[in-house]
Amino acid sequence: MERVQLDKILADHKAWVERGRTGDGKADLCGADLRCANLRWADLRCADLCGADLRGADLRCANLHGANLHGADLRWANLYEADLRCANLYGANLYGANLCGANLIGAQGLGTPEELLARLGIAHPARRPIS
After folding, report:
1. How many angstroms separate the first and last alpha carbons of the chain?
2. Is the CB of residue 116 less than 8 Å from the CB of residue 110?
3. In this structure, what DSSP letter does residue 129 have?
4. Rounded CA separation 109/65 (Å)
5. How would you class 12 by CB atoms within 10 Å of its CB: exposed for 0-12, middle for 13-18, buried for 19 or more?
6. Which end of the chain, N or C, is less surrounded by CB atoms within 10 Å?
7. What's the pLDDT tens digit per position in 45-77?
8. pLDDT of 118
9. Architecture of domain 27-122 in this structure
């Protein structure tokens, strides 16, 4: 996606949020190609990002509270200190994603802690081979 187009969508979405989430302007980025996009500090509360390709995207400190990330590809995305409260993460590919400091309270589709570690590509400490 072209940066100019993305900036317009983000500005419209910010206005939509500020209006109390009424009227037009909610970000619909379902299926969007956002590989390696700089979305640091982006306000994407309640945005639709289902099936979006966010591989390697910079989402540090992004507000994704209540966002729909169903089936999104977040491999190697940087979600450091991102707000993912109540986000829909069912079917999202989180392999290699940086979730350090991310707020995952109420996020849906994470599974058990062991399943989340596996989705991130991290071996469970109790199952690591002893060398």
Report:
1. 46
2. yes
3. P
4. 14
5. middle
6. C
7. 999 999 999 999 999 999 999 999 999 999 999
8. 87
9. 3 Solenoid (2.160)
